[in-house]
Amino acid sequence: MISPFARIDPDARIGKNVTVGDFTVVHANVVLEDGCTIDSHCIIGYPTPLAEEMPLRVGPGALIRSHSVLYAGTTIQERLSTGHHVVIREKSLVGRQCQIGSYTELQGDLEIGDYTRTQSSVFIPKHSHIGRAVWLLPRVTLTNDPHPPSDPGNLGVHIEDYAVLAADCTVLPGITIGTRALVAASSLVTRDVEPDTVVAGVPAKKRGMTREILLKDGSGESAYPWMRHFYRGYPEDLVNSWIKDYGDKNES
């Protein structure tokens, strides 16, 4: 299951039932746990002194699609799924069952919680902290430098559990986006966002509460919290906990 055209350092630790595609390079300071699939033309464990000799650890069942680069010094829990051309730099902590969209860049020294999903071309800088089951839609940009360019200039963005950032949002350094909040498309977020609120505009301003947004299916039900009606791809035990905490729109 290892392509003859792949280059695997003999000091890399490779688990059972691992697949490595054509022209992929796996460096020495790498642990690939059981059931990982690494497509073609990837670089796994890219060496950097910023990793401080820590290994890249990729949890079981990961799917890393072609032309992705994962740096040494990062820890990834089970069943990561990436798109193509993803970059995950050193000292990133990536939780369980995360999905990272094509052309997304994680700049390292950051944390992403379990079940979080980014779509394509998302930028997440150093010292970001993203909670559990967050959605970052296409071209969301988080920033961390209040006076670019500055050194160290790293005021990370904090995004709390279940928040949704729609396409083309930009979030300025040091901002906190509260639990279950919604940031509308193309917004520029310049101040903290309270839990369960909707913000929109340039600069983004509070427009109401998420519960006031109705589904467009004619049901009259609120679209938020989204965990009442969207379950695709999430594990059964997590969905059951959502139903217990928030109810199920289909049973209303």
What topology, given as strand order, has the largest sheet? 2-5-8-11-14-17-20-23-26
- The poorly predicted ranges are none
Based on Cα principal axes, name the global outline: globular
**Distance from first to last alpha carbon:** 48 Å
Q: How would you describe this protein?
A:
With 252 residues, the chain is mainly beta. The chain folds into 2 domains: 7-210, Hexapeptide repeat proteins (UDP N-Acetylglucosamine Acyltransferase, domain 1), CATH 2.160.10; 214-252, no CATH class. Helix content is 4%, strand content 29%. The chain has 1 helix and 30 strands. It has one helix at residues 236-246; strands spanning 7-8, 13-14, 19-20, 25-26, 30-32, 37-38, 43-46, 56-58, 63-64, 69-71, 75-76, 81-82, 87-88, 92-94, 99-100, 105-106, 110-112, 117-118, 123-124, 129-130, 135-136, 141-142, 158-159, 164-165, 170-171, 176-177, 182-183, 188-189, 197-200, 205-209. The strands form 5 sheets. A 9-stranded parallel beta sheet has the order 2-5-8-11-14-17-20-23-26, with no helix packed on it. The protein has an 8-stranded mixed beta sheet with strand order 12-15-18-21-24-27-29-30, with no helix packed on it. A 7-stranded parallel beta sheet has the order 1-4-7-10-13-16-19, with no helix packed on it. Strand 29 and strand 30 (205-209) form a beta hairpin. The longest helix is centred in the C-terminal third of the chain and has 11 residues, at 236-246. The protein is globular, with a radius of gyration of 19 Å. The mean pLDDT is 96.
